[in-house]
């Protein structure tokens, strides 16, 4: 904490806090009524601040779509298509904005905080960077990652004359290409797309609900974006035959400028509260597919005492039972005879 400077009745104080604690500190400041911060006067205002404050389980991330001052029709169509895929967790601002996020992020961070949005998409167009999209995300009210991509060969949803998917459908994401693993910027871009299209957390999945696929392919310094509708056809068996039909949007993306967070900040942004971590149970583990496997320790079993199923066809006939009794009696007589035989002590 820096020393405070008293100027008449005004006390100026500068407090240095860790970036990871800024969200909690700012929230507590609002609730505590620190001068310069509006204190809630009603229960509704208090609930609003609590809803905007940090939570153990965060809400579904929202996205805002901002129209640049020189955005053309292609950029607007692309933004509206992405906005429709993100619904109901998206807001489109049709008013033109002179925002330049790579030069100054202040206005962008203000808009994301005001609209409680973690993701943003800004559409622009210029002679130097035609058909330009700036996509990114924030953490703790500040910029985390930002990517600038150019579009080529764009086709909108309206160009495909087939039935569309319902609003709010959670898509399946496919990534093809070694560059998503080898290139650091593309690896972070892949992480951003997963975060952007993640949607609500589903506890169970229905086969009929798997009807949308978004595929990203990295090849020759381009990223192809394709969107398909899943069609389940009859196959004569229990498992249906799957076909894919393109529904749009369709575009070839070229990565231009990036501004990604450092590894330390990215690690802090992904950190989960200790209360959310599931306690490890002894001798219980989960497979890669999510199946729960357990290990049970038991005593050694005596299989001679094992109760087996008695089948009628395996029962002994009366003759076999009579022969078994006779053999048992003969064995008993032989054993008794051996016990009664006197031992020869002279030998």
Describe the overall structure.
By secondary structure, this protein is α+β, with helices and mostly antiparallel strands. The protein folds into two domains: 5-52, no CATH class; 63-271, 3-Layer(aba) Sandwich (Rossmann fold). It has eight helices and 14 strands. The chain has helices at 22-32, 43-52, 73-86, 106-114, 179-182, 184-196, 263-269, 318-340; strands at 5-7, 10-12, 63-68, 90-97, 119-124, 132-139, 142-155, 172-176, 212-219, 222-233, 241-246, 250-259, 284-286, 292-294. The strands form three sheets. Strands 3, 4, 5, 6, 7, 8, 9, 10, 11 and 12 form a ten-stranded mixed sheet that branches. A two-stranded antiparallel ribbon has the order 1-2. It has a two-stranded antiparallel ribbon with strand order 13-14. Strand 3 (63-68), helix 3 and strand 4 (90-97) form a beta-alpha-beta unit. The longest helix has 23 residues, at 318-340. The chain is elongated and about 120 Å long. Mean pLDDT is 82; it is low at 1-22 and 30-36.
